[in-house]
Amino acid sequence: MSADASWLQLSWFVLFGALLAGYAVLDGFDLGVGVLSLAARSGDERRLHILAIAPVWDGNEVWLLAAGGALFAAFPPVYAAAMSGFYPAIMISLAALVGRAVAIEFRGQIDSARWRRIWDWVFGVGSLVPAFVFGLAVGNVMRGVPLDAGGSYAGGFLDLLHPYALLVGLQGLAMFVCQGACWLRLKTTGELEARMGRWSQLAWAAWALLAGLSTAATFLVAPARLEGLLARPLLWPVPLLLACALVALPLLQRAGKALAAFLASSLAVVAQVGLAGASLYPFLLPGPGGGGLSVSGASASETSLEVMLVIASIGMPAVIAYTAVIYRVFKGKLGTGSRSY
Questions:
Q1: Which domain does 212 fall in, by range?
Q2: Is 249 buried (19+), middle (13-18) or exposed (0-12) by CB count in 10 A?
Q3: Region 98-121 average pLDDT
Q4: Which of 212, 199, 211 is CA-nearest to residue 253?
Q5: What is the CA radius of gyration of the chain?
Q6: 193 domain-assigned
Q7: In the chain, pLDDT over 90 holds for what percent of residues?
Q8: What are phi and psi of 285, to 5 degrees?
Q9: Number of folded domains that form the chain
Q10: What is the pLDDT of residue 151?
């Protein structure tokens, strides 16, 4: 393998991780907002939950599509094994995301409390399911995915429901709910803003507790993940960054610094994704007993990686610029009128 090929493979591993981190931060908060809508106290509050993400939710999901495209183009065997192995979970999540999108558009089409209540439940459940399933998928990857000699998935659906993966799934759910509560506190006023401050504290406590339990469980279930991280001192700042962000988050919330708290939560989410990537490297899809699909063994050709890197260097700045413009246009608190903005 040439030095150029190794550099390209590492670049795409980092880019794929960056896309996942961007998705976890951006769509993470609007999934969290959807989950929190299940605890809203009135129809008007549920409307505010939707309005808080209405201008940005579809743009946030572009990051997931980009991550899937990057995985397919740069690491095709990993894409094939992951899509076949996690197929039932993926289809459940896609159905939930489609229902959630429909709920956002349909809720206000008929002036009926019953109609709105039905779509409110679809919106809430459609947010909760993918928020949990994404964490479940990470837990299975961290644990190790059963693969045959050809690199194809060799397990069944029930293999995905391992207690360790379920624990990581709950951690991911708590992380997204915390991110959503921080966003809602940033966007709302009055009693709802105060309640979101309390929700962010509760979700933060659950996130921190479950992160600690998941780390301890990783020592028992997948010690190779932690051994790989400990063997690379250059990666040690990643868990340190996560710890610092998690410590700062509740302090900033108590101080009433909503924007700083949201940024701290976002930084913790990025560090959480980075920690998973740092623990997995050099594998993208490790096996439970060692081996698996590695960055070097499962990548596309050097020419393909080069061409796609040029395309990504043009496309990603455009996506980032579009995202920045949308968030700038719709910055600030929600209003109190019928359309809010």
A1: 3-240+270-329
A2: buried
A3: 91
A4: 199
A5: 20
A6: yes
A7: 58
A8: -140, 85
A9: 1
A10: 76
CA distances from 4 to 203, 298, 309 (A): 44, 16, 13
| Distance separating alpha carbons of residues 153 and 300, to the nearest angstrom | 19
What does DSSP assign to residue 55?
A: T
Q: Is the pTM of this model over 0.85?
A: yes
Provide the sign of the torsion angle of the four alpha carbons 31, 37, 43, 47, taken in this order. negative
Which among 330, 336, 12, 273 is positioned nearest to 142, based on CA atoms?
Answer: 273
pLDDT score of 1: 53
Task: DSSP for 198-232, please give it.
Answer: HHHHHHHHHHHHHHHHHHHHHHHH-HHHHHHHHT-
- Which tens digit of pLDDT belongs to each residue from 290-335? 788 889 888 888 899 999 999 989 888 988 898 889 898 888 888 6
How far is the C-alpha of 226 from the C-alpha of 167, rounded, in Å? 17
* Strand (E) or helix (H) holding 284: strand 283-286
Q: How many CB atoms lie within 10 A of CB 16?
A: 23
Torsion angle of the four alpha carbons 158, 176, 13, 263, in this order, in degrees rounded to the nearest 10: -170
335 occurs within a structural domain: no
Q: Check pLDDT > 80 for residue 2.
A: no
| Beta strands 292-294; 283-286: pairing state | antiparallel
Residue indicated by tokens 């390209």 = 8
Within 10 angstroms of residue 315's Cβ, the number of other Cβ atoms is 13
- For residues 190-205, one letter each, b for 16 or more C-beta atoms within 10 angstroms of the residue's C-beta and e for the rest, the string is eebbebbbebbbebbe
Q: Determine, yes or no, domain membership for 139.
A: yes
With respect to residue 254, please indicate whether it lies within any of the assigned structural domains. no
Distance CA 147, CA 77 (A): 11
Q: What is the b/e burial string over 18-32, where b = at least 16 CB atoms within 10 angstroms of the residue's CB? A: bbbbbbbbbbbbbbb
